[in-house]
Fold these 4 entries.
Entry 1:
Amino acid sequence: MKINTLKNKKEINRLFQKGETSIFYPLMVYVVQSKDPKVLFSISKKKIAKAVERNKLKRQLKAIYAEDFSWNLNKHLAIVYIANYVCDAIELKEAMQKIKDTYEKG
């Protein structure tokens, strides 16, 4: 299933400037209210130098997000990878589950 990704520069700027932040190590999350929920995945070149590793982590994050696509959110999310090393999929899945549990609307 296709993930609704955040691409609009104005929305991304609003998310990073006015969004609420939380850390679920190895991920940091920026959240802002929105009618049309979208998600952005970001991994800094300074944290993970090799593009192959960055792309692998992004693919894993997208797969975990899409695996349980029933995220019931009314928010834009920016999920930023903050660790200096490559985490395994289990650690990423646990962090993503914490994010979902925290921000899912009841």
Entry 2:
Amino acid sequence: MLKKILTRLRELLLGQSPDSESGAPSATLADAQNFTVSESYPIPVAEVEDSDDPACRTHYVQCASATGLHRMAYHEWGDPGNPKVLICVHGLTRRGSDFNVLAKAMAKDYRVICPDVVGRGESDWLENPMLYGIPQYVADMVTLIARLGVNQVDWLGTSMGGLIGIFLASQENSPIKKILLNDVGPKIEASALRRLGDYVGKPMRFKTKQAGLIYLNRICAPFGDFTPEQWMAYNGPHLIKDGGEWILHYDPAIAKPFAAVTIATAAMGEMMTWKAYDAITAQTLVVRGGQSDLLSKETVAKMCQRNPRARSIEIPGVGHAPAFITPEQVDLAREFFSE
């Protein structure tokens, strides 16, 4: 049954079968290949090294796709025997380390699990890039939860992570009991899709890590005002040494299904997402960045109207998406999940 559901979701959300082919976004930008610190952006960069937190444990789970097996990494905080599990899932080009601050704060009460969705971070890349989509991600999360050995979980999903949560929470007997949707809903504004299309999947290379951080900090500027040290901790893990240069952590091919979406398939995907959202029985909190270009106030109002178990809160002065690294945002999550 799950296989049929995921296959149908793939067809509707991507408008293609797993065997479809599509070209990746153009990567002809000369400045992308030669990005240097000389480009002036207002966000400072801290000259500090990345450091691993000994409280965080990294594991791997083997997942299946239509073309074979792949490993998905997940990062664990807190008591591994704690039956209370919080799964935090990142956005399109991000990775599980985004939740380090939140996970550390929640680890006293929860076993916190922060996966690197396939194609990102320490997880494998898929052989067929057209499988990068919600159906595959949902299937991988089902496998992850089975590995954790628990019957129920709470869920915090940012952007793409929220969409994964919507479809998983919509299933009959879903393990999700509470879900925080961070700046995402069934309707995604076209302006945000255009913005994402400007950079997702372009094979960036940087002469220095500092140059890479400046680039990432620029893209993430709507997330909020952070110190140089916070920016380093947040974006540092997204850069990987490749020979004498630095590259981004994710498979550029994650953009191929994104680029293949048409107006018709996008409309069908939105309809399917609303249908999934309407089926959610979990207690739901919709968080919107006050300046978000992805989640409109109108969509939030509609989400609360259609789901009697949903409520919303808006974080002023933040765009897409709140990072949940400030004390106020961490407290917001803690209060919701402790209710």
Entry 3:
Amino acid sequence: MTLAWNKSGWRNKERIQMPDYIDDQALNAVETRLSSYPPLVFAGEARSLKTKLAAASRGEAFLLQGGDCAESFDEFNADMLRDTYKVMLQMAVVLTFGAKVPVVKIGRVAGQFAKPRSAATETVNGVELPSYRGDIINKLDFTEEARVPNPENMLRAYTQSAASLNLLRAFSQGGFADIHHVQEWNLGFANAAGSAQKYKDLAKRISDALDFMTAAGINSDSTDSLRTVNFYTSHEALLLEYEEALCRVDSTTNLPVAGSGHMIWIGDRTRQPDGAHVEFCRGVQNPIGLKCGPTISNDDLMRLIDKLNPENEEGRLTLIARFGAGNVGDHLPRLVNAVKAEGRNVLWTCDAMHGNTIKSSTGYKTRPFESVLREVQEFFAIHKAEGTVPGGVHFEMTGKDVTECTGGVRAVTDEDLSSRYHTACDPRLNASQALELAFLVSELLESRHALKQKAV
């Protein structure tokens, strides 16, 4: 039975990783304005996503969730948005071919502005200032004025999110997402200098399949699903003043919905069972994600599942495992078995980014491509051993040609990192690395599909 809930109830709980605004009047004015604005997403879309995630939890679909570590006000433009969206489309086609099931596409976009930090302050040249917590809260510039939390930033985040959603919906429905265009882009990657032969072979098999469909009369003109896609948005629900202000009541069910994004998640640092973030998220009807790191206990996970999915609804709760390569075997089996023993409905996905951050020999924070891939491989191997479903992957990535993660087919080295290191927070996969990962994950999915076929 769900306990009584209201959208302001989180204010009576412990707040973690949230700013202390110095001007209550300005904060209240912003919250009032946001409360009067239209929601960014609609309840029916969130319900549709929940149905698709339920299918992924049963192995009848696969989740691809990806996008920026933290969205930026200054770097926002149509080309940046298009390039990341384009790579996600490319990845989805490759994953669909391997899995032989639909791929659910969710961006870390149109709301991913706030970031938890490991320390409340940072020191540069002997000067200590509050940490940068994302553009929705304060500025990256290392000045006292820039680091003061500004509630007005929430209005700019809302406006940018609305513009992003408008463009993404146009891309999704206007022909840009046509599978034949996407496959041409994939062929370009596969045939590029340095690409492995197996990538070329897989790309050719996909092209052959599309050619057969065209010959059979199934093409973009006759079949909408080859020309359009459903694309959903997500972000970490960290800044609860913003989330509450955009909470709405679904007119068809009379239940509360987070209007800030189709899916929201709770971070590994803010998942206290009695904390403010769990309190807010438990009451909205959207699909909810929960980051699970090495410190989560079996008991805490079960308490969180009880709070976030008391009705044991399929598609409601996605558990996003983030342990780091080499550590997955120490933690994922115990959590999977605890969930399985209690008969809880969850979707398991793999965040192979956050547990693999290291400091390079040149001083830059980075994530080795090989470690990211290894964590995904370990995730699949454990689900195979436990007889459970590896339901998706979660990547921090960009469509730009940045040099923030080492490795990949283009072999980015520690020395290369300084050439195009643009992230304001954590290192992201570039377009080539993200697509290469999709080809490699597709192999894992194809092997899993072959085993299922053998068992039939």
Entry 4:
Amino acid sequence: MGLPILLILFATSAAAVVAYGVHPDLAQYSSGLATIMIARRLMWPLISVSLILCIALIGLVIAGKRRAWWLIGLAPVLALFVHRFGPGSPGPTAVIENPAFVEATDANAPEAGDYVVGLIFEDRAYAFPYRALFARPVVSLIDYDQRMLLLWSAYANRATAVSLTRELRPRDLEVVSMPANSLVVYDRRLGQFISGVTGRTLKGGDVVGFSNPLDTTKTTWADWKAAHPDTRVMAGWNRASLPSRPILPAYKMRVPPVPEIGTNVAMLATTQPAAVRDDVKLDVPANLTIGDTRVLLLRDRSGRIRAFDRHVKEDLFLTFELANGARKREANLIDIDTQSTWTLDGRATDGELKGQRLRRIDLDDRLYWGVMKFWYPDLELIETGG
């Protein structure tokens, strides 16, 4: 009697690790990410062990050494495998290469208020609806000899797009899980785990096959279409059950309780990871120092936060304030160092520095503080005070 029990116990245990070893909520524990990586690496050996034990039990029944009702003990194994590999589960099917696109005027295009991730690849505008990305969060595009990859972490509202080298093949990728609300992708050929939030490996290293980052824009379809009338949009997966707007984090994380996990922030691409609240006032431009970068933070005429590097040349680091009087009508800013006037897009229109441009600092808004703090432990929340 003891042998069938042992066979069922070990077969079920191996199947349980396969089914729940990559569960997103494991990220709340100190060794959670390591557990997920180990469980994925051992997935096929564990499946083999579980199946061999199941076959051994079936063999005992066929040989007449045990009664047939022992086979009922294999039901949990079957249920666990269905849970892991059933419809909607993560895996290679969540990765798509060269999906179908339609023109902006097509009947299958998103509704005006639906959100999309927009980007420019090889001088062509593309839009990826939130609905489509929720079903297929890893998208690869090929334009002649140029290739790119888009990773979408829906529960972080974070899009990461990069150009690819020949070292990485999208067909070798599979979605593993969503620990700490970030997409995690596994490269079966190169053995690397990639975070969709950071665009780096889970150990913090560079991803083999990733080249230059590509700018992405998260906005409504109406706004993206107005800015890029000739855009193409990813078709399919327009089911009403899929989210068409940003959604809140769904999985547990190990982060400080304050600020709240769901606080909306904008993250700056500075040497020291930093973020500001999306609702920061910025009634006046903020002159900040973040790590080694002197930053100008302001809102443009549309209300979007913009960031610029205040370093112009040599050892000149400008300090900005709002212009007044006639100058305010011509250009919105003035630097107190040279009294040059500047537009809100970082261009000097008058004065000693006329013609100069400030370097734009990439900024990703509508993110969630808790998610970004987990994946960027050194992330600082900057309070501008104005």
